[in-house]
Amino acid sequence: MPDRRPDHARTPAGPSGDIPAGIPGPVAIVGAGRMGRAMAAALSAAGVHVDGPLGRGATAAGAGVVLLAVPDAEIATAARALSAGALVGHLSGATTLEPLAPHEAFGIHPLTTVVGDTSFAGVPAAVAGATPRALAVAQALAGALGMEPFEVADADRPAYHAAASIASNFLVTLEAFAAELGATAGVPPHAFAPLVRATAENWERHGAAALTGPIARGDEVTVTRQRAAVAERLPGRLELFDALVTATRDLAASTRSEAAS
Q1: Which partner for 147 in 114, 142, 169, 256 could form a disulfide, CB atoms 3.0-4.6 Å apart?
Q2: Where is the DUF2520 domain (predicted)?
Q3: Burial class, 147, CB count within 10 angstroms (exposed 0-12 / middle 13-18 / buried 19+)
Q4: Topology of domain 10-153, per CATH?
């Protein structure tokens, strides 16, 4: 059966035309969405011979390695369509290696968001392999892209992916809440962006010790005023505000305790 692919499917090898050490044969990428296109472009630029991104249902015949850049629910179906013999990996953070059976399986999950042109250089990546060879290939692919691999076992996948969702998805939810409340005071959403960036940078440097604001200072009068404003202007968000205050109080108390010890 011929591979299904868009017209732009064949990505030429990178400038050297050589395959980086530890990556056997051509790398086929199945899935022409944002991640598939970004991964094909980045691997090609790194000198890897890339076939794809191929359309879903591709057999990827002749590939030494196949990367499935498809939605989690479609990984098993995409894996079943592949020709035998290649090492097969997925790019999911939440999915175990089980849906890739009976192929020799691995996983790579870049810990970043992909929107448009994406550089993976310096990006941490969760890797796993069903065999030592498969794990070595996952690490080699990550290394070719300049990523920083770390291992996550299948049993730890739900916790790992929940942590990633908290760090990324929930942050967007919080900033939308801040923008919505700020709008009631005439504050444009972009005004909060420098504060968000500075906070993220401080957290990266100092961890929980980067916490500032009225809760960290023990200024309950100000917190009470904030709560009243939320209750008046966005009553549907009051439960979220209260949950965040409780969690932040716990964090502040823990930080003070650690500093005192």
Answers
A1: 142
A2: 124-245
A3: buried
A4: Rossmann fold (3.40.50)
Question: What is the C-alpha separation between 61 and 237, in angstroms, rounded?
Answer: 52
Q: Which residues pair with 30 in a beta bridge?
A: 54, 68
Q: How many CA atoms lie within 13 A of 177 on its CB side?
A: 16
pTM higher than 0.85:
no
CA atoms within 13 A of residue 175's CA, in its CB half-sphere: 19
Which two tokens mark 116? 């448009």
Domain boundaries, the chain: 10-153, 168-260
Ranges of H-type helices in the chain:
34-45, 75-80, 132-144, 157-167, 169-183, 193-206, 214-217, 220-233, 238-260
155 residue type, one letter: A
CB of 55 within 8 A of CB of 15? no
The pair of three-digit structure tokens given for residue 176, joined into one six-digit string: 């939308």
Pairing of strands 65-68, 104-110: unpaired
For residue range 62-111, what is the model confidence (pLDDT) as tens digits?
999 999 999 999 999 999 999 999 999 999 999 999 999 999 999 999 99
Phi-psi region of 4 (alpha: psi -120 to 50; beta: other; left: phi over 0): beta
Tokens of 72: 């989690």
